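Late entry, evening session. Most of the bench is empty. Finally got around to the prediction I had been postponing all week. Sequence below, unchanged from the version circulated by S.P.
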Amino acid sequence: MVSELICTAILKFIRGGSVTLTTTFNESESRETTYQDAAKPSNIYCYLLGRYQLAHIDAAMRWLELSGYIRKSQWGITGLSWYVLTDKGREAADRGKVSDEDKRLLYQEEDPYAVFVAYQFNRDDTDLVTYIHQEILLPQGFTMLDGRVDGLEEFRASILEKIRRARFFLCLLTKCVKLASGTFASSVWLYQETGVAVAYGKKPLLLVEEGLDSDYVGELQSIYEYIMFTRSNYPQRFKAISRRFLADLDANLIPRPDKPIIAI
């Protein structure tokens, strides 16, 4: 996947730069030509190599050229070469991001800012789900998807596509059925949805309510990252959710989502 973060770093570096060529006609006459919003390939790579891998820079440069953000110019057949921003590239450099249309091309396989939340559709969990959506995900610019659809066939197709498209999978494991031991089991649907997420290569983050039987969640907790919570401490515990997702974006060179503008 081409990194949008590297693409915008390249555009910002070229913006405001210049390349000057000197043409010599004879011993006493020469002329300088300056190209604005331009940079030599060597300068671009030297600037970025301290932070990014060479292969990732190469991929970003090629994508920017093919997408019309930069164009390559060259003096003569084998002479000096440099890159110049197009109008599209200048606009993207000033905005600090590529166009929305091109962003969709960058992230064809998954939405990097979508979170699928698996949970029980019952009144007891409404406050938890609302808090996750309104206080954790939305303020950071993440969108929330869930399995709420009409009809069994629509459910099977839609839920698979939603899980596949979302970069993140969050499973809210809460008490559902009381066992003879006095502990609880959660909904079987949640375990199945977690299995689907794993099959798609996601790394589930489990929110585990205290009191669930270890036979039902112990194996999941030994494999996947999880957060334990109670009905009284969940606001504090759930703060780790967005930190985990933002850290993943940073590690994979994906720009953080735009936070919504909240009117005062």
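Two things to note before I forget:
Residues 100 and 233 are 39 Å apart (CA to CA).
The radius of gyration is 25 Å.
Will write this up properly tomorrow.
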